[in-house]
Task: inverse folding
């Protein structure tokens, strides 16, 4: 991996982590507004360290280690930069399992947003699918069954990885729904700042799963994931304290994040089935998709301001 590819990968990871964590930033801002200044500073500093080194550092490392136990803890951390043929063989063998599991997770995440979540309609077909919400479970079931069927013929462990990806989606989705309900009670008052900090750390860990799994579409290198996702987590923290209201003005930013998630999920699935995807494709797709919806949001906001004036 040359310097340009490394830079593109880190930048792509940072952008993807940022846009996929917008919901998290908004929830954080709402809860932080009810906390004392000292507690806010504590969360923004120590919470950032926890988010970067514990959640976005330990989680991808554990995932790589879990899918390739023969590597050991150090090997899982440095696998993609190792010249040891045994290490390279182990990571090559485990990569399809990891990629397919992450790909299924991301595709289900997109389909749930497309069929069931309220949204600012950015493209014509989104309204149609939102009206067909009842078909979400049928669509995801058929998709998962097809992926499992084809992956069994390649490697039964790939099929297991796909099932694990779907399981991870429904577990984290349940946590996210609980977090949204808990936010309402926390912003009303009556809770200590300590309990609010613990709550924010819990939902940060839950929301970070999307970014961590999506990161494997960019690279299998844990150090690069830590750097890229850590940079994205820092940007999200800065947005939390400074520009959340302005972010809400970019009404189609969430759309851009979700289409990026779809594209990265498909890339991971294709990679898992042996269809080689150049490493620069994932960051390029992320930049183009997010950039297009940012520009669409900017034009929408400009039209709204012109009408007011």
Result:
């Amino acid at each position: 991996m040359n310097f340009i590819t490394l830079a593109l990968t880190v930048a792509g990871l940072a952008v993807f982590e940022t846009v996929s964590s917008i919901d998290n930033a908004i929830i954080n801002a709402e809860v932080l507004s009810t906390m004392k200044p000292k507690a806010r500073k504590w969360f923004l500093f120590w919470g950032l360290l926890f988010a970067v080194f514990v959640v976005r550092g330990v989680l991808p490392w554990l995932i790589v280690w879990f899918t390739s136990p023969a590597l050991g803890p150090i090997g899982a951390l440095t696998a993609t930069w190792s010249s040891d043929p045994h290490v390279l063989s182990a990571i090559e063998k485990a990569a399809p399992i990891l990629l397919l599991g992450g790909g299924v997770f991301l595709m289900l995440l997109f389909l749930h947003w497309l069929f069931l979540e309220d949204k600012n309609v950015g493209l014509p077909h989104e309204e149609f699918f939102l009206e067909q919400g009842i078909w979400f479970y049928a669509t995801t079931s058929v998709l998962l069954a097809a992926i499992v069927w084809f992956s069994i013929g390649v490697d039964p462990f790939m099929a297991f990885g796909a099932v694990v990806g779907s399981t991870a989606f429904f577990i984290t989705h349940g946590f996210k729904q609980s977090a949204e309900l808990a936010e309402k009670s926390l912003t009303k008052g009556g809770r200590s700042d300590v309990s609010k900090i613990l709550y924010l750390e819990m939902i940060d860990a839950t929301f970070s799963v999307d970014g961590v799994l999506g990161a494997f579409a960019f690279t299998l290198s844990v150090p690069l994931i830590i750097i890229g996702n850590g940079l994205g987590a820092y940007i999200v923290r800065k947005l939390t304290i400074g520009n959340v209201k302005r972010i809400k003005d970019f009404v189609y930013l969430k759309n851009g994040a979700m289409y990026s998630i779809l594209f990265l999920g498909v890339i991971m699935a294709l990679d898992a089935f042996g269809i080689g995807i150049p490493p620069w494709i994932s960051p390029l797709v992320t930049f183009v998709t997010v950039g297009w919806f940012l520009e669409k949001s900017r034009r929408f906001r400009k039209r709204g301001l012109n009408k007011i004036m």
Remarks:
- The chain has a mean pLDDT of 84.
- The chain has 13 helices and no strands.
